[in-house]
Task: structure prediction
Amino acid sequence: AQSVTQLDSQVPVFEEAPVELRCNYSSSVSVYLFWYVQYPNQGLQLLLKYLSGSTLVKGINGFEAEFNKSQTSFHLRKPSVHISDTAEYFCAANSGGSNYKLTFGKGTLLTVNP
Amino acid sequence: DSGVTQTPKHLITATGQRVTLRCSPRSGDLSVYWYQQSLDQGLQFLIQYYNGEERAKGNILERFSAQQFPDLHSELNLSSLELGDSALYFCASSAGERRSGEQYFGPGTRLTVT
Result:
């Protein structure tokens, strides 16, 4: 079964510092990967997605992610974070068969401090 | 705003009761997904409907049921409620049933069972 692991439950950083949120997935077949962000008391918003093609994917709000098949990773990065990036970030995968569900990681709480 | 609406926003009820959560997908989207978010289980897929038909089932309890109506809105029915059913319930929609299709999430319904 598909599984998604987010290696850090919490990541505190200072404003304007770079950040990387790590995500690993397990799958023996082709996989589609997504990053979602959840601001307090809100639903999930899609940041970016990898379907095929270029392994570097750019998303909204200055975020990007790199798909690495050999390491089964899909890490999210931003070169300079803002206070407003404070939120929970979820990595998700969708793979194989007739099941269209998203399998989510446990989430990473990014806290940006002034 | 994702275009997906969910009502009610909050629901407080007692154990043993039954509730209905409602979701309206984005205009034109045929697929509706239900997810449960809790502190201990994280985000879990419950069930998917496509154009009125059940397409995929996840970890949905037998006490829970869902349906999608001809106007494409969906309802999630939770019965014989237990304390452990307290969670945030999200609805998501996508244009079709392609697994590469991104899912757009509603703001969620927070259910509290006392």
Notes: The two ends of chain A are 41 Å apart (CA to CA). Residues 27 and 95 of chain A are 7 Å apart (CA to CA). The first strand of chain A starts at residue 3 and ends at 6. Chain A has a mean pLDDT of 90.
